[in-house]
Amino acid sequence: MCRCWGPYWGWVPCGPTPWLLLSLVCAAPLGMLGEETRQVSMEVISGCPTPQNLLHIRAVGTNSTLHYVWSTLGPPAVVLVATNTTQSVLSVNWSLLLSPDPEGGLMVLPKNSIQFSSALVFTRLLESDSTGVPEGAAQPSGRPYPPYSLAEFSWNNISDSLDRATLSAIFQGHPADDPAGAFANGSLALKVQAFSGSGRPAQPPRLLHTADACQLEVTLAGVSPRGNHSRFGLEVATLGTGPACPTAKELHSIDDEYAPAVFQLDQLLWGSSPSGFMQWRPVAFSQKQRGRDSALSCQASALHPTLAYSLPQSPIVRAFFGSPNNFCAFNLTFGDPTGPGYWDQHYLSWSMLLGVGTPPVDALSPLVLGIMAVALGTPGLVLLGGGLFLLLRHKQYSEYQSIN
Ligand SMILES: *[C@@H]1O[C@H](CO)[C@@H](O)[C@H](O)[C@H]1NC(C)=O
Ligand SMILES: *[C@@H]1O[C@H](CO)[C@@H](O)[C@H](O)[C@H]1NC(C)=O
Ligand SMILES: *[C@@H]1O[C@H](CO)[C@@H](O)[C@H](O)[C@H]1NC(C)=O
Ligand SMILES: *[C@@H]1O[C@H](CO)[C@@H](O)[C@H](O)[C@H]1NC(C)=O
Ligand SMILES: *[C@@H]1O[C@H](CO)[C@@H](O)[C@H](O)[C@H]1NC(C)=O
Ligand SMILES: *[C@@H]1O[C@H](CO)[C@@H](O)[C@H](O)[C@H]1NC(C)=O
Ligand SMILES: *[C@@H]1O[C@H](CO)[C@@H](O)[C@H](O)[C@H]1NC(C)=O
């Protein structure tokens, strides 16, 4: 607490600084109160007669239920469904789901409780050699290698990595056919995590989440790159809203306390509320030890309508939505031609959030608020000090005159 001394006034508080500091610091945690908590269950639904990886996350709130169905049947995909009842259930008809025409094989019942539904499909792992590509060159840049179709990967048994305590599970895969042995010592892993309340993971980029969202962490580790300066990327497809694609939106903040040197938050919004969102910070990491030194940029191409047949098809998406033809796709590319890259440690990780409702947005962190309050307070101090000085001088001057 700062106080100024003046000869005639005794001490006076210095302008608004202490109050500004206090109120701003108090505003931050208050903004995060009142988040809904959810009763989250995670279940692996195994198929008969051929077992398949189908992970059902059911998150029940006071008067709504969210369903996230993740699967590596076909390319890794998730169907997200929000309903306005606590009673909605997932129904799987395996004989339909595994058939060539899977429509109706996946349903959320009762159907009229569905308020929003969409899907994400991770279609391809991209690789390009960025040797000789000037920094900041337009995307896509570098010599592309043939992409790895994620529909042709073989995946581990999700049951082995299911952890109900942390509400997480890991899909780990490698190409079913890998003649060059690039994945001999490596894999692509997709770690899915659900949350029963709001919070923030310990590891950067520390995305703020609510109980309405799931986190996906994509890790490529130990895979032999095909070039000396290979950059990897991910092709992501989603369902459009009518004829239009979801809207991409960038948010900027002066605050980088939770994700060092990253001042941007990228979002994909499916429409007006209640709707879905995908959210990520444009940063990936080239080491397990995530920090400023291992941070890579992450560029997203524009989202544009894409013909369904040009994308690997996801049976769960077709099972739930029929045969949608309003796909939109975009590419994420990780790293710059210069600076740290996958080549350093053969490691890359990137995180995103997928959810329903209003996307969580960071309030300014207490540290930054404190710095701001001090920074804003300093000119106030100077002004007040200057004012006092002038007043005193004036007084002295008039006293001096009166003595004269
Ligand atoms: C995974 O393992 C469990 C038993 O541990 C088994 O019941 C299930 O069918 C397996 N799933 C797959 C996809 O192999
Ligand atoms: C859900 O429940 C809360 C309180 O339990 C209530 O305030 C809110 O209006 C309800 N929402 C809907 C859509 O019914
Ligand atoms: C699954 O779908 C098939 C084909 O439509 C149908 O014959 C069968 O009865 C369904 N099974 C269940 C359990 O609903
Ligand atoms: C859920 O929404 C449907 C229409 O979308 C409505 O008919 C139904 O009454 C709603 N149910 C509840 C419990 O609010
Ligand atoms: C995989 O690891 C083994 C033993 O560590 C090594 O001999 C082999 O060369 C590695 N293969 C590739 C493709 O890196
Ligand atoms: C990688 O670098 C080595 C030595 O610098 C070179 O011989 C080789 O041709 C390069 N490979 C590619 C794919 O550029
Ligand atoms: C993503 O990049 C790959 C390789 O450069 C390209 O074939 C594909 O069309 C791109 N997809 C989108 C949706 O831009």
UniProtKB/TrEMBL annotation:
<comment type="subunit">
    <text>Interacts (via lumenal domain) with lysosomal protein MFSD1; the interaction starts while both proteins are still in the endoplasmic reticulum and is required for stabilization of MFSD1 in lysosomes but has no direct effect on its targeting to lysosomes or transporter activity.</text>
</comment>
<dbReference type="GO" id="GO:0050821">
    <property type="term" value="P:protein stabilization"/>
</dbReference>
<keyword id="KW-0732">Signal</keyword>
<dbReference type="InterPro" id="IPR029382">
    <property type="entry name" value="NCU-G1"/>
</dbReference>
<feature type="transmembrane region" description="Helical">
    <location>
        <begin position="367"/>
        <end position="392"/>
    </location>
</feature>
<keyword id="KW-0458">Lysosome</keyword>
<dbReference type="Pfam" id="PF15065">
    <property type="entry name" value="NCU-G1"/>
</dbReference>
<keyword id="KW-1133">Transmembrane helix</keyword>
<dbReference type="GO" id="GO:0005634">
    <property type="term" value="C:nucleus"/>
</dbReference>
<keyword id="KW-0472">Membrane</keyword>
<dbReference type="GO" id="GO:0061462">
    <property type="term" value="P:protein localization to lysosome"/>
</dbReference>
<keyword id="KW-0325">Glycoprotein</keyword>
<comment type="function">
    <text>Required to protect lysosomal transporter MFSD1 from lysosomal proteolysis and for MFSD1 lysosomal localization.</text>
</comment>
<protein>
    <recommendedName>
        <fullName>Glycosylated lysosomal membrane protein</fullName>
    </recommendedName>
</protein>
<dbReference type="GO" id="GO:0005765">
    <property type="term" value="C:lysosomal membrane"/>
</dbReference>
<dbReference type="GO" id="GO:0045944">
    <property type="term" value="P:positive regulation of transcription by RNA polymerase II"/>
</dbReference>
<feature type="signal peptide">
    <location>
        <begin position="1"/>
        <end position="27"/>
    </location>
</feature>
<keyword id="KW-0812">Transmembrane</keyword>
<comment type="similarity">
    <text>Belongs to the GLMP family.</text>
</comment>
<dbReference type="GO" id="GO:0005829">
    <property type="term" value="C:cytosol"/>
</dbReference>
